[in-house]
Amino acid sequence: MNWLTRVRNAIPFIAKRDTPDNLWIKCSGCAQMIFAKEFEDNLSVCPVCNQHGRIGPSTRFEQLFDEGSWIVLSNPRTVEDPLKFRDSKKYVDRLKAARAETGEADALINAQGRIEGQPVVIGVQDFAFMGGSMGVAVGEAFITGIRAAIAANCPYVIFTASGGARMQEGILSLMQMPKMTVGVQELRDAGLPYIVVLTDPTSGGVMASYAMLGDVHIAEPKATLAFTGRRVIENTIREKLPDDFQTSQYLLDHGMLDMVVSRRHLRETIAKLIGYLQPQGVAA
Hints:
The protein has helices spanning about 5-10, 35-40, 55-65, 90-100, 135-150, 170-175, 175-190, 205, 230-235, 250-255, 265-275; strands at about 25, 35, 70, 110-115, 120-125, 155-160, 195-205, 215-220, 225, 260. The protein is an alpha/beta fold.
């Protein structure tokens, strides 16, 4: 036994601490490490750079609705794999994995409740579910939310977060764009407000349809909002785009948004808009 082995064996063994691996979160904006509890207490907003983190439907509903006032609406069943699509994985396997990860049936969830005593139906797209992609189930969920709002004679508020159409459903996913546009018109024909809150990221066919058809367009700060990718545009027009291009502030400065609102002020802002836009005589 050499001296190195003797020294190593003489050092007392200290067991590795069992520490959670989720105590810290790395901000997607400034790359700072943030204590997870501090991040959650700040509504999943970075206290250093104000980058708004992505949150799911349940968290969003808890932040917006009056406590104990809301219920999740059931979405109609749809054909899950109409094209029998397969790339590196079967589409049905991707759906199973997304459902296991998020606990949701698909990428758009609706809930009905009250904000500051005022009735409202809210739909939230979950980017964690296959990038919030728009397929047949999302289209049906959107129409379900619209018609629930019409039945309750109240506004429909949609929180968008999507990479666009779901490629595994091909042309059927693109057909959701006109269907959802007709749904928005049904809400307008009923004289009810349609409020859109664009969150990070919203792009593709979603940005090209129902995300830009609202009576009021709100966005969270520093959200990426785009129809197509930056590189595609630069290669097409042969020009360098501004650094802040396709951000919520850029779209606000160029007239495509009505306001950019921090998450901590969203609830009160939506409540005020409902009060301004909701037809008079509706019982709260």
